[in-house]
Amino acid sequence: MKIEVVQKVLKHNEQAARDNRTRLDAAGICCVNILGGAGCGKTSLLEALVPRLRERFRIAVLEGDLETTRDAERIAALNTPVVQLLTGGGCHLNATQVQEGLNRLPLGELDLIFIENVGNPICPAGFDLGEHLRLAVLSVAEGHDKLAKYPPLFRDADAVVLSKCDLLELADFDPGVLEQDLGRLNPRAPLFRTSVRSGEGFAELAGWVTQRVGCGGERPADSRRRRG
Amino acid sequence: MKIEVVQKVLKHNEQAARDNRTRLDAAGICCVNILGGAGCGKTSLLEALVPRLRERFRIAVLEGDLETTRDAERIAALNTPVVQLLTGGGCHLNATQVQEGLNRLPLGELDLIFIENVGNPICPAGFDLGEHLRLAVLSVAEGHDKLAKYPPLFRDADAVVLSKCDLLELADFDPGVLEQDLGRLNPRAPLFRTSVRSGEGFAELAGWVTQRVGCGGERPADSRRRRG
Questions:
Q1: ipTM metric
Q2: Which residues of A159-186 are buried (b: 16+ CB within 10 A; e: fewer)?
Q3: Phi, psi for residue A86 in degrees, rounded to 5
Q4: Nearest CA among A5, A209, A40 for reference residue A124
Q5: From CA A226, how far away is CA A204, in angstroms rounded?
Q6: CB contact under 8 A, B38 and A121
Q7: Nearest Cα to A137, choosing from A154, A151, A112, A150?
Q8: What's the whole-model pTM score?
C-alpha cells in the first residue's frame, strides 16, 4: 500500500503564514511567537509580561496545547482575550491553526498578539506561523547545554529568555556556557534573565517588546520577513 | 506538484521495532526506553542508575540527540559502552536508528540496554523502538500539570519518574495533582520520586528495573508486546 501526501505540508504552511502576516500587518498588529520546551515557563512569562504591557497595548493570546484548556484559563484570569488552539496530539502549531485563532479575535481592536506554542523544544521551530518576532524560552532547570543540543529553537529567535533564574544558585547551571553558545549560534539575539518569583527581567523584556510594537508605522516584521 | 510518500513510515517503524525486540530477546537483553522533555534529567538519571545496576548486569546505553555528543560523553565517563545516535534535527528516535545502534554493540555480552530518547515530551511517545519497558521522566521544575497536558508520554509508560525532587519545596508543585492525573491516565505505572542531589529514589528505581531484567527466563516484554 502506498500513502500519497497530496498536500505539500510545508509549502501550504508557508502560504498560510504569509497570509497571516499580511492580515496582521493590515490590522497594525505585532505578533510574537513564544517557543520552548514543556514546563519552561511560557505561560508564567505571559502572566508576568501581559500586565506590564497592557496599559500601552491592546493584547490577546493564542494558546497552543495538545490537550486541556489549563493555560488558556490562566490567561483568561488576566482578563485578556484568549483562544485555545488544541492540536489533538500534534507536536507544534501550524499557520492554519493560527489563522483559525485569528478568526476568533477582534483584530481591529488589538495591537499585540502573543502565541504560546506547544511545549516542545524541536518541532515548533520549523513552522512559521506568520509571527513578527520569536521568543525562545529556556529554564535554568533544563541545564546550560540546551542551546547546543537544540540549535534550531535558538538560532532563529529574535530574543532568548532564560527563565526560573531564582534557581540559578541551586542548579548546576553555568550562564557562561549559555552565553558562549548563544554568541556562536545567534549573536544578534538579546538574552533576558527572568524570574516570576522575584520579577527580575520583566521590565527589560517588556521594554524590548514595546520597542518593537508598531513604532510609528515601521513594522517589526523585517527580520522574520527576510527569513520567510 | 505532488509529493508522494512511498514508505509507510509508521508501518516500517513497527516492523523494525519488532525486529529489534526479537533480536534483543534472542540475546536475553532487556531494553528500557527513557522518554521525557529536554532537561528533565534523563542523562543524570542514567548517571545515578547505571552504577547501582552494573554489579548485577552488563549494561550499555544508546544516546539519542539532535546534535552534539555531550550526553554520550557523560555516559562514557561511567565506563559504560555507549553509542550516540544523532537524529540531525529529527525530533524522536526511530526503530531503524536503534537497529543501527544495536549493530555497534556486543549484544552477546550484555543484559540491559538503556535508550535515552531525544528530549521531547511529545513525538518520541509515538515510536516503538523495540524496547521492553518505557520510563517516562518529568522534572519538578516542569510543573505538576504536565501529565494532563502531555498524556501520550505517560499513558504508555511502565513507570514514571518525578526527577529533581530536591526542588519540591521551592517550586509550586503539588504532587497530589500529579498522582491524581497518573491514577486516571495510567494507574498501573509506579511513580518514583528521585533526586540526583540527595540520591533519593534511585535504590527503589534500581530495584524495579532489577525485578524486570531477565528473571529466570521470563522476559519483561509482556506489556510492550501487547501494545506492539
A1: 0.80
A2: bbbbbbbebeeebebeeeebeebbeebb
A3: -95, 125
A4: A40
A5: 26
A6: yes
A7: A154
A8: 0.86
How far is residue A63's CA from residue A82's CA, in Å, rounded to a whole number? 7
- Has domain B9-214 been given CATH number 3.40.50.300? yes
Q: Which three cell numbers stand for residue B82?
A: 555507549
CA distance A155 to A144: 16
Cβ contact A122–B5 (<8 Å): no
Q: Are B132 and B104 contacting, i.e. CB atoms less than 8 angstroms apart?
A: no
| Domain A28-214, CATH | 3.40.50.300
φ/ψ bin of B40: left (φ > 0), alpha (ψ from -120 to 50), beta (otherwise): alpha
Strand arrangement of the beta sheet that strand B59-65 belongs to: B82-86, B59-65, B112-116, B30-36, B133-139, B159-163, B191-193
Residue B94 distance to chain A (closest CA, Å) = 16
Alpha-carbon distance B25 to nearest alpha carbon in chain A (angstroms): 30
Domain ranges of chain A: 28-214
Q: What is the pLDDT of residues B60-98, one digit of tens each?
A: 999 999 999 999 999 999 999 999 999 988 999 999 999
Q: Which of A89, A151, A166 sits opposite B67 (nearest CB)?
A: A151
